[in-house]
Amino acid sequence: MRWVIFIAFYAFFGAYAFQALKTLQPKAWVWWLISIAWSGVLVFFIAQFASGVTSRIGVTPITGWAFGLLLSVMVFKMTATSVLLSEDLVRFIVAGFRKVVGDPAPLLPGRRKFISALALGIASLPFGALLYGMYKGKYNYKVLSYELYFDDLPEAFDGFKITQISDIHSGSFDDPEKVAYGVDLVNAEKADLVVFTGDLVNNSAVEMKPWVDIFAQISAPVGKYSILGNHDYGDYIEWSSDQEKADNFADLVGTHEKIGFDLLRNEHRVIEKDGQQIHLIGVENWGRGRFIKKGDLALASAQVPKDGFKVLLSHDPSHWEDVVLKEDTHYHLTLSGHTHGMQFGVEIPGWIKWSPVQWRYTYWAGLYQEMGQWINVNRGFGFIGYPGRVGMWPEITSIVLKKGTNTVA
């Protein structure tokens, strides 16, 4: 039934967009060509969706492309339709007025070429942006660098650099050369410590196998540490048995070791330098609402001195808002991911930062400070669902810890 409703909406918006095309282009072969292309996109998506469900693999590069093309066409149709509906409102008002006054002119004014051109022109903007995001935006890595100052940072760690990546979603990748380029950017930061904050795969541990050698190249003299995200538990696809799901999870945990990351599962590590310490704490996923809640902050911090300097790895920023900030213990810096910045938005530094994801998450991209504590929400290294990024580019974050007044530079 859901497919019938969806196809009906797809056809409705398509019919409206065709009105603009017919007004501007009278040649029938053009309409047929576009109609075949739009129908092909729909069939391609349905076939890939059915294949993903049957195979229990879920999201793959090919299903991602199918969804991305469908989304691009739907956005084009809906945008054009919104403009044409506005004109139709005016046309029907005029028709009603003519009927009342007995105007001999044609009852319903024809669709104007200017409005049709305007509708298609406006619709082409998001359509082109979505295609660009699929072609290039998804690997348009950005390195964001910050200096954070803390009064109680141990002096030995003044200038200590942490590089963060998050949300690899390896099952979506389709270009080893570009992924390797992103890893090279991570290494170019020459960080003391590299952390990965969850979602290594979309669904299955096997997704990561082609990428192990690339991500194993990440290096950091002090160490590499990681945590789990909501996608890492295999909860979003069907398994033939509980044992199969458990085996998949064991494989995923082992993959962290293969790429050289120390996986923290509600535990902590002491980072020492010149006889001084900071504490790196990693919790399993804890998310608001329907998301899995295996994160145990109390357990992870049980052996951490209350007055120690703490860096917390927690995949979902809602954990920081709902749990961490309410603790008596002061967590100096939390590193999260999860939101991807919705892979779509507008950012102009110092002026605007907007994405629809902000209607769901208070803390959704970049640095935030509350109660003297900081969180960085990484926009993610990879992508899922829509196989692209527009405005919210894939991110590598480097944070330098500095001794001084609690602020950012």
- Helix fraction, binned, reads 25-40%
Radius of gyration: 25 Å
What is CATH's topology name of the largest domain? Purple Acid Phosphatase, chain A, domain 2
Per CATH, the class of the largest domain reads Alpha Beta
Instruction: Just name the CATH architecture of the largest domain.
Output: 4-Layer Sandwich
Q: What percentage of the residues does DSSP assign to strands (E)?
A: 15-25%
Q: What's the order of the H and E elements?
A: HHHHEEHEHEHEEEHEHEEEEEEE
**Unreliable runs:** none
Main β-sheet, in a few words?
Answer: 7 strands, mixed
Mean pLDDT, rounded to whole units?
91
Determine the CATH superfamily of the largest domain. Answer: Metallo-dependent phosphatases
Terminus-to-terminus distance: 54 Å
How many individual helices?
Answer: 9
Strand order of the largest sheet: 5-4-3-2-14-1-15
- Quick one: overall form? elongated
DSSP strand count: 15
Oligomerization: single chain
Total domain count: 2
